[in-house]
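User: Um, any thoughts?
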Amino acid sequence: MGLSVRTEVWVEDLAESWHGQVREARMDIVVQTAGERYYLDVVCFHPFSRKGARRTHASGGSTLAQETAKRERYATCEPMSGRRLTTARFVPVAVSTYGSVGDAARELFLALETAARRDKPRYTVRQLGWLERLVGAAAVHGNARGVLDAYAPPDGQERAGVAHRAGRAGVRGGHEGARAARAAARAT
């Protein structure tokens, strides 16, 4: 696509408000195009609470709420004067563990895809929205990987067999999985 992309970059021209202090910000991704620079900060969140109830917008259960929290954390303008602190465009990338991508990221991805289709013939065969689908799939895959790792066989640090059997039983979910996990632990 003709982009320069760097990850985990400390940027001095963007301030981060952190526990009442202001410091330079660390961006997850910095994208440089021919005409513009984008600072991307990614948040992947789960839209449900621990008890299984859907989180509300106010409790951070939507991509818009997560984007708003990121915008509040990183000031792009001075509070008093309103003077812009950076020439880069800050884009919060909010992705749910179910693959839903926020509007700000969707807009950026569409602009990058459109530019790529215009400038590089090989991208004309791709259907618009492929970056959004890729990021959503990565979030789902990362979430699934975390679940699989949580129920994987022990790495030698725990008693052999107990965590593995309890983990496999826990995959069933609900009270049945919990009972099976306790029974497996008592059996050894």
Notes: Residues 107 and 132 are 9 Å apart (CA to CA). The beta strands are 4-18, 21-32, 37-45, 74-75, 89-96.
